[in-house]
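Lab notebook, design round three. We kept the backbone fixed and only want residue identities now. Task for the bench partner: fill in a sequence for the structure below.
Input structure tokens:
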């Protein structure tokens, strides 16, 4: 029986409850492990330059994957019915904002620092994911399929942040294990003596082909999110489809969003988004409507001293058109004999 979109979103919310909360060491941050020569210890942990080539696949069986990089970035978007290593939207990143008491707030891209070498384009790092924005000092990656865990650290950040990303893998349930989703749950702990106001935002360029951009804000009992589509594409186009950015509703969280980044030029829009976000950890839809193809979803919550809060994002996609030309299939040349 075909799923309705309402049923599909409901299943997304249910899938996020399947992952157990990972145990944490007393310090809240796992230490990197140096493995003796010839021996491998488990769980395996990576940090520093070891993070550079990690790509942990997230996605249901047969649905394609979006990979989680070792630094916490999203890379290798292979959800368009063909292998697509290296394909990443120009903008897709998580960001954190935190303010302890009356102290000045701190805003960071929720990734550790970009690793050298930096010659990814003829002009250096280029524009992909705004490399000039501040990132966190370090990350420790631990992978144990279907779960990936990253502990972030930064001296300026007044909270401890951990990410648990996982696949919709349900033993003996092929249908539930074949949902086209990636689930990312950020756990934020306040180790201080004052309440901390924390926001986590996710921004993403519309992946449904070039040109058109349509974004809907939707809210239900369990979920709040954005639905990205492209009205200019023909229904049979290989990139025609939809992408959902979903937040599981949590008590006490204030959700804001931008259907489109604002700004007269693509290079200005990221700066305006960042100025808006770092001011108060919220996103403002007031003013002139945005013209960018990038949308953002943000949740803010106050965390009491010694307590934790979770922010669970679900990324879901639907790209049904698999065409021979898109996959690179070519028929054999026909030889005519005279």
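Proposed sequence:
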């Amino acid at each position: 029986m075909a799923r309705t979109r309402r049923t599909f979103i409901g299943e997304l919310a249910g899938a996020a409850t399947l992952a157990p909360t990972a145990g944490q060491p007393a310090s809240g941050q796992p230490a990197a492990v140096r493995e003796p020569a010839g021996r491998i210890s488990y769980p395996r942990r990576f940090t520093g330059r070891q993070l550079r080539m990690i790509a942990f696949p997230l996605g249901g069986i047969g649905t394609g994957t979006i990979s989680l990089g070792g630094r916490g970035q999203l890379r290798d978007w292979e959800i368009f019915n063909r292998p697509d290593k290296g394909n990443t939207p120009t903008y897709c990143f998580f960001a954190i904002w935190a303010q302890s008491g009356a102290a000045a707030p701190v805003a960071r891209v929720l990734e550790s620092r970009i690793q050298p070498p930096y010659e990814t384009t003829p002009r250096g790092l280029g524009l992909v994911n705004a490399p000039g924005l501040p990132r966190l000092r370090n990350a420790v990656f631990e992978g144990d399929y279907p779960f990936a865990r990253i502990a972030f650290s930064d001296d300026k950040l007044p909270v401890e942040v951990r990410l648990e990303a996982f696949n919709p893998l349900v033993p003996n349930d092929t249908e539930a294990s074949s949902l086209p989703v990636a689930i990312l749950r950020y756990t934020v702990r306040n180790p201080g003596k004052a309440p901390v106001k924390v926001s986590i935002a996710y921004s993403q360029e519309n992946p449904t082909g070039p040109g058109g951009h349509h974004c809907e804000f939707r809210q239900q009992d369990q979920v709040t999110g954005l639905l990205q589509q492209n009205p200019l594409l023909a229904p049979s186009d290989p990139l025609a489809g939809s992408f959902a950015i979903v937040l599981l509703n949590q008590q006490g969280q204030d959700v804001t969003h931008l259907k489109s980044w604002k700004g007269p030029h693509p290079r200005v829009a990221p700066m305006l988004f960042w100025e808006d976000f770092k001011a108060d950890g919220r996103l403002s839809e007031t003013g002139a409507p945005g013209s960018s193809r990038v949308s953002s979803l943000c949740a803010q919550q106050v965390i009491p001293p010694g307590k934790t809060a979770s922010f669970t994002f679900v990324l879901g996609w639907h790209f049904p058109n698999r065409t021979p030309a898109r996959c690179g299939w070519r028929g054999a040349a026909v030889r005519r004999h005279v």
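Keep this in mind before ordering anything: The domain at 43-327 is CATH 2.70.98 (Beta-galactosidase; Chain A, domain 5).
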